[in-house]
Structures are given as C-alpha cells and as structure tokens.
Specification:
heterodimer, A: about 500 residues, alpha/beta, B: about 450 residues, TIM Barrel, ten-stranded mixed sheet
C-alpha cells in the first residue's frame, strides 16, 4: 500500500492535510497519523481512518495505476443522456474587440427558421428517450437574433424536449428589458457577460463597430435586469493591460450590482488573433497563475479533476447559424473545423472520432510526470492537446502547477475553519477527537462512497458554461458561496462541486 | 442517400424484406422499394418512404461511416456509465463432472472435498462490489464455476448479502450455469426464495448413452437420469431452462433423438440450444479431429436454426471489454473474460486490492474494429459476427492456438432470415408504403 501519486500532503493551521486530485477529496489528521502515513506504517492507523483513506483512494495498492483510474473517468464523462448544445444563432457581432478569436469567421446573417427547424430534427435523431437538452446561446452576439432564441426554444418545447439548462454568452449591450424578458420566457437562467476593467479600460477594449464605448449601457442593463436571473457571471479577460485595474473594477461590481452578479478572471489566450501586439499583453501561464492566486477570493472551489469539455463528449455540439456542427464551441463558424451539419449529421467521422479519443495519452510529454496532471488535464483544453500542430498557443499549465497547496489552503481557511469556529464543541487539536469524527462521518459517508466510487453519480452534462477554454477560475465572493457540500471535519468534499453550475 | 452498408435484401414467398445488421431490425417492403434499393435508384422512392427508411437506419447519408459508428458504439458500451453491471461469480472452481472437452481442465479443482469460496473471501467480494459498483446500478449475476451447485450455501450467502446492502438484480432475476446434477428441488426452491433464481442453463449432450459417455461424474458414473429428473422438476420453479447441446462430429447425429425426448419429456419452458465444442485448452490430440470447423458447424447450426426465435443481432462486445463486467473466482481473483475464471495467470486483480494488472485491464478496453483480423475487413456480416463474437481472441491472439472463427451467419444469413420470416411473418413491421396500401 502507498499514497496515491496525486495526493498532496501538507501541514496547515495545526493539522496535516491531504488533498486527492483524483476525486477532489480533502482530509485532515494529527501529527501522529501523519508520521505513520509518511513512514508507510499504514496498519498502525485507526481502522476508520485507514478505511476512509482506502475507499477515497488516498491509499492505494502498490500496483494501482492512477492514470488508468483517471482515464476511466475521462472515458465515462464522454457519455451522457443530456444533449449539450452551444448554438450560434448569428455569427455577426455589434462589437469589435481586438482580441476576438472569431475575427476571421464572424458573419453577417442570422439563423433561418428552416435551419432552426432542422436543428430540432437533428436533436431528435441524437436524443435518448429522456430527451434532455442543455443549451448555451452563443454567437457572434446572440441577442442580435433574440427572436431565433425564442423561436428555437419553442420548437424544442413543442418537440417535448426536457431543457435541463439554458444559459447565454452575450456582450450585454442588448440586454435591455425586452430581451431580458424574452430570455426569461425562453427559460434562460444564467448569463455570462464580459467586463474588461472599469470604464476607462473597458471602453477601449470592448467597443462597438463604430468605436463607441459600451460600459455604461452594459452596466445599466445588468443593474436593471440581474434580478430576473439566477446568476450573471462577469468575465474579466485578464491580461497585463487590465490586471492593475481589476481591484477597482471588483469594488465597482460589488457596490453596483446585486449579489447574484459574480465576477471571475479568465485567461485571454486565443488561437486566432493575428494582431502582433496581442501576444505582448497576454499573460504567460505562470504569470496568470500569480494573478489567479491574488484573486482566489473570487471563487473558493477546491481544484477539480478535469475530464474534458463538451467537445470531447459524444453529444456535445456547437452549431453555427448555417447549421454546421462543431465539437469545440470556439470553432463555431469556422467551417474548416466542422464535423458535419444538421442536415447530414456527422460527415467527418475521422475528426469526430479524434475529439472522442481524448485521454491522458493525448497529453503532451511535459505532462507525463506532472503532479497536478488530473486537475490540469493536459492544459484544460482538449483542442490544444489533441491538435498540437494546429494550436498557436500550445498546451498551457494550470495555476495548480505552481500553487496547488496555496489554493487548497485558501479553501481551508474560508470553508473549513469557519465551520470549526461555528462548532465550538470540537476541540482544535485533539487527534482522538478527529478520529472519532472520522468514525461518525464514516457511518454517514460509507453509503455515499459506495455510490460514488470516484466520479460523481450525477449525470454528466455537456455544457459550454464552466468549460471555458480560457477560464481557470470560478465565480462568487466567499460570502455568497454555498457551503452545503463541505462535509464536516475529516472529509470535506466527496463531491465534485459542479452541482451549482449544473443547477444554474 | 444510400442503403446502409450492412444490410440484406430478402425475398420470401412473394414478399420482400430488408434486414439491417446495424440494429438487428427487419422490415417488409414493397416490390418498388425493393427494386429501388437493389438498383440503388433511391430517387424513385417516395419522400415519405425515404424518411421512414431513414428513421429506422436503412437509408443513410452518403457520408455515413458504418465502421466509425460501430467503433463509437463499442467505445460507448465499454466506458459509459452502465445500466447494469455484470458479474460472473464462481462460488467454487471444483466440479463433480469430468467432461473430456472442458476448457477449465487445467484450472479446475477435480477431487473432493470440494474447495469453496471462504466466508472471508465472500465478505471481501461484497466489499469489492460496494467499492466498485454504485448501489443504484442493477447487477446481472451469472453463477458459474466449476459447478456452482457444489456450493449453494455460498450462492445463498453472497446473493443475500448483496441484497441486504442494497443491490437489486437486473430484471429482478438471477441466472445459473450448472451441469444440473444438483439442480434439485431443494436447491432450486432455496435459491428461488433467497437469490431470485429465475433461469438456468444445463447441458445435455445427447440421449442417455451418448450423454453419459460425454458428461460423466468423476468416477465415470452416468448423469443423464439425474439431470433429466432434476430439470423436469426445476422447470416448474423457474421461468426458463436452456438445455445446451454441445455437438461435435461424434454426437451430432443423435441431436434429433434428443430433441424428440426433450419435447416429450420436459416442460415447455425448457428450450434446447445447439452449440459447438471447440476449446483451447484440451490437450487430447484426438480432440481436434472430432471438432467441427466453423463452416462445418455452420451447416449443423443451420439445421437447428428453427429452435431459435430471434433475429441475428449486432454483437461487438461482451462484458469483458467493458468497465462494467468482472468474473470472480472462488479465491477472489478478478477476471475480465469469465471463461478464464480460475486461470490466475490472466487475472486482472483480486477483491482485496482491486485491479492489480492495469496493463491487462486497459488492453481489454481497447477493442475496436481496427483490431479485427484482415479477413473481416470486407466481410458482409461484420456487425453480426464482431470478428467471431470473442473480444478475447481479437485482443489477445497470442493466447489462442486456434484462429478467429466466423459465425454461421457468414454462410447462411439469408436462410436464417427466411426461417425467421416464416415464423414471424405477421408480426414483421411493414414500410409506410405497404401500410398505406392496406
């Protein structure tokens, strides 16, 4: 028996902690247990702790193959009863952002009703009997074709699809009352809008085609309509130009918007930007990691295993306004990368199968012995891993590569310690107490762990949201965060905390 | 648009049919449609008929790639969260029989006292199942061995414990593969009550004298009368019993006699099924001379196809090449292929440590049509045969001395389809054009 190679052990706040990347489980123990673990004297551990560590894969047999276990979950995640669609209802956009990766394939038209009808037919041909559907409205700027959003939603409803999730990625400029209400009617519950710094920077970067700024309109739209939705994620595209203005922006966001508007930092690194100065303003992965660490407080999620994105899932589809099908939703509109169309279904099976072949064996060599392989997943971007000849950016490492412990410690400070303080009857340092609570927790936890060997039992939903290529963070100020899934004391997280996203 | 690659056009007594191997469905079509499909004159088919055929997978887009679809199917079946998890459990690897063709000869325990799974191993097996299989996933359990009814108390214990910790059995039933010698009323009743036994497979190799020569007890005593007596009674407690008839050149001529006896002496829920004898592990040099070749066996199978009630189905995978199947032997070793139970050199792990031989385990999950032997490349029945129905032989050619055998449909698919049509003529779905005509 031995510690799994993706377990990180470190001392913090008077305890020793172990974090397991394979299932995002976190446990703690006292010094004596720490010594036993480090000296490989596992049989001297209490039976409860030993059992817990074995069932949650902290301790594994000598022959255990962590990468095979990880691959198993990657494979499993590819198959879902839910059809995941990212639909570009128009590929045209009223903005002209210098870093847009769609620059070369932005169009002018919008989706015809005929194409929309055919999308429904295509989905009927792919759906399982449950007919579950999860939609991200996308473009171009989808609100330039909001009538199609409503039309297509109604068509899906008429065809008896069960729409389990509906969200939109919009620049926010057209999120007026009329459109916001339309989105509500269409069942959209969550929005992603980009704000690139306070007014002075945003208005330089995210401009209308005629060059005019967009900040005031967007802010006003959000203020007036945020209450209609569960959540608005404010994306801040972080690069060297913006980063110094972020604190100011965050303060503005906090004071201007209701609490369901949650900012997060994303990494701007796009494949298709030809602008030669662009590379200079972008962060390297290491620089981004440092910025990420500064803004951990925006999202206190434990690092999660990365199993791929909607592109690597059997039923994850990007669809453009002409009905072409894509795997990667950043390709939407880039017909060279289409795998088919909604009339003919898949036409390029080789390309389609290539996307479905994503596994640890597609990771580049530099990932081979990486200690954070599971949470990074070969750069959190299957495109770059699978098509090394086509990426100009290459495989970028996740912040965990440098700051795994800091990230987990941050989570402990904001999610575990407050619970301890709230439960004053638990003494802070008694190892025996810790063991007892393992026992109690175990009694509750065992049925759960049976049901959840290593992967959350929940349905996988191929969703564009939360799988952003450049998005390494999550959203939410600590005080708004739902702490429901942090089980008390020794085992803090048996579940992937994707739940919230999926509900949204 | 075109006819799907793996399909067959059949005429039978003035009617026209098309069979789709990709999904195992058959359709009655009009002469016009038949002609159009045969001549690839798709434009002459009405739009309504076209979309009817397309919805059922008979007509596909020109770019449709059948092999890619099959490979994606295999990948999904291998990896997706399963609707059931299959376990073949050998509560004992001992057997009271001594059949000359047994493929377990080298790893079977042959003399009393019978070695059985210990309580400790059984308890650990339960733990392994709990750690591996979500309790919400129904289990498809096949009790296997050795001869599982040498250890009915182990079956009872394991089956009861699994239910106690919350597992359900698929379709609320359990299946056992037994030689039938101990399929006594007492055992059946007990297992029906405790572990939901509903179906059994028992082997009878011919009328009394033939069977007794082929399937004797270890001391050479015949077993025919005991088995026939047991089956006749057990059938009343079970939904069905399959009587497997293993044929080779020496007993094939007695099959009609046996079928007659079965019809006259056994209840109607006992179904005979002819199978061929051909195993890897029999050292007897004379053995190969009595076995049928694949093509010879096909001719035999053709004569007894009338025993079957189903259409040929696509058959690309087995529980061994999925993440949702294990075989477990009496010592707690884990196998992918359950015909390997007891053969520890190919175990992938054990119930204490889980998987230990990841290299082997992972190899089992790499099946796809590109691994098929060359002769399958342009085979017209590829989805039905799946390169011989045996992922083990495809993935581990060095483990086998004999090559991948084609299935009888390779030579006689049309006959099988006609036999099915004859039996089920009135229940076969008609194409929309035919429906309109009536």
């Amino acid at each position: 028996m031995r510690l799994s190679k993706y377990v990180h052990v470190f001392p913090f706040e008077g305890y020793y902690w172990a974090f397991n990347e394979l299932n995002a489980n976190l446990i703690n123990f006292g010094y004596s247990d720490y010594r036993k673990i480090m000296n490989n004297e596992f049989d001297k551990l209490s039976p409860n702790l030993l059992d817990l560590m074995k069932t949650s894969l902290f301790l594994v047999s000598d022959t255990f193959d962590e990468d095979a276990e990880y691959d198993k979950n990657i494979q499993k995640s590819k198959f879902s009863n839910v059809l995941g669609l990212t639909i570009g209802v128009t590929m045209s956009c009223n903005f002209n952002c210098f870093y847009c990766f769609e620059q070369e394939y932005r169009g002018t038209g919008k989706m015809s009703k005929e194409t929309a009808d055919q999308i429904v037919k295509f989905c009927l041909s792919r759906a399982t009997p449950e007919k579950m559907l999860s939609i991200t409205w996308y473009g171009g700027e989808p609100l330039l074709a909001s009538d199609i959003i409503e039309y297509l939603t109604n068509k899906f409803r008429e065809a008896n699809f069960n729409i389990v999730g509906s969200d939109i990625i919009t620049n926010g400029y057209l999120l007026n009352k009329r459109n916001a209400e339309l989105l509500v009617r269409a069942g959209v519950t969550s929005l992603q809008i980009t704000i690139d710094g306070p007014k002075q920077t945003h208005d330089k970067r995210r401009i209308l085609r005629n060059g005019a700024g967009t900040y005031d309109v967007i802010v006003n739209n959000i203020k007036e309509n945020a209450h209609l939705f569960n959540n608005i994620q404010l994306r801040i595209n972080a690069d060297k130009e913006i980063i110094e203005y972020v604190p100011e922006l965050l303060e503005e966001i906090r004071t201007t918007f209701p609490p369901n508007v949650t900012p997060y930092l994303a990494f701007v690194r796009t494949e298709s930007v030809k602008n030669p100065t662009f590379g200079e303003v972008c962060f390297s992965d290491k620089e981004y990691a440092e910025a990420y660490l500064d803004y951990l407080y925006l999202g206190t999620q434990l690092p999660q295993p990365y199993y791929g994105c909607s592109a690597t899932m059997e039923n994850g589809w990007g669809i453009d306004d002409e009905g072409y099908l894509y795997k990667c939703w950043e390709d939407v509109g880039n017909k060279k990368h289409a795998v088919g169309d909604v009339w003919n279904g898949i036409t390029n099976y080789d390309l389609y199968k290539k996307w479905l072949s994503y596994s640890t064996s597609s990771f580049p060599n530099k990932c081979k012995d990486c200690s954070v392989k599971v949470v990074c997943g070969g750069g959190k971007c299957p495109f770059r891993a699978l098509f090394p000849d086509e990426t100009t950016v290459g495989v970028l490492c996740s912040p965990e590569k440098w700051y795994m412990e800091d990230i987990v410690k941050y989570w402990i400070v904001h999610n575990v310690i407050p619970q301890w303080q709230a439960n004053s009857n638990v003494s802070q340092n008694a190892a025996t107490q810790a063991t007892e609570s393992v026992a109690q927790e175990n009694q509750k936890a065992i049925p759960i762990s049976i049901d959840l060997p290593n992967l959350p039992e929940k349905e996988n939903i191929p969703s564009a949201q939360g799988n952003f290529k450049n998005d390494q963070g999550s959203s939410g100020f600590p005080d708004q965060k739902n702490k429901g899934n942090s089980l008390f004391k020794n085992i803090f997280s048996r579940f992937s905390n994707k739940k919230e996203d999926e509900k949204a | 648009m075109r006819l799907v690659r793996y399909s067959n056009l059949v005429t039978f007594e003035g009617d026209f049919y098309v069979f789709n191997q990709m999904n195992g469905t058959i359709l009655q079509i009009s002469y016009d449609t038949y002609k159009a499909l045969k001549n690839q004159d798709y434009d002459s088919i009405s739009e309504e008929e076209k979309s009817f055929l397309a919805n059922r997978g008979f007509l596909v887009k020109d770019t449709y790639d059948e092999k890619a679809i099959l490979d994606l199917d295999i990948q999904r079946i291998s990896h997706a969260r399963p609707s059931t998890f299959s376990l073949a459990i050998g509560p004992t690897m001992s057997c009271n029989f001594n059949c000359f063709y047994c493929f377990e000869q080298d790893f079977r325990h042959k003399t009393p006292p019978w070695r059985k799974m210990s309580k400790e191993t059984a308890d650990q097996t339960i733990k392994f199942v709990q750690n591996t299989i979500p309790v919400s996933t129904p289990l498809e359990i096949i009790w296997y061995g050795g001869e599982p009814l040498l250890a009915p108390e182990v079956i009872e214990y394991l089956g009861t414990r699994l239910q106690e910790v919350g597992y359900q059995f698929k379709d609320n039933e359990t299946f056992i593969i037994t030689n039938g010698y101990y399929l006594t009323e007492k055992n059946v009743k007990k297992l029906v009550d405790t572990v939901k036994l509903r179906r059994a497979q028992v082997t009878i190799d011919g009328p009394r004298n033939i069977h007794n020569r082929r399937r004797p007890l270890i001391d050479g005593t015949g077993t025919y009368d005991v088995i026939m007596g047991n089956v006749a009674i057990a059938a009343h407690y079970l939904d069905s019993i399959v009587l497997k008839i293993n044929v080779d050149k020496t007993n094939v001529e007695y099959v009609p006699d046996l079928l007659d006896i079965i019809k006259n002496e056994l209840p109607s829920n006992v179904f005979p099924s002819v199978d061929s004898v051909a195993t890897e592990t029999v050292e007897n040099p004379k053995f190969s001379s009595i076995c049928f070749t694949a093509q010879e066996y096909a001719s035999v199978y053709k004569q007894y196809f009338f025993l079957r009630n189903d259409l040929p189905r696509p058959s690309l995978t087995c529980s061994a090449n999925t993440e949702s199947g294990f075989g477990i032997d009496d010592e707690g070793y884990l196998y992918k292929c359950w015909e390997e139970l007891g053969k520890k050199s190919v175990a992938v792990g054990n119930v204490w440590e889980g998987i230990t031989n990841y290299e082997l385990y992972k190899k089992w999950l790499t099946l796809d049509t590109s691994k098929y032997p060359e002769k399958c490349e342009s085979c017209s029945i590829l989805p039905l045969c799946g390169a011989g129905h045996c992922p083990n032989k495809i993935l581990f050619p060095d483990h086998y001395s004999n090559s991948i055998d084609c299935i009888p449909a390779k030579w006689f698919l049309e006959d099988f389809l006609k036999s099915y049509i004859k039996k089920h003529r009135n229940s076969i779905e008609k194409s929309i054009t035919l429906q309109r005509r009536q």
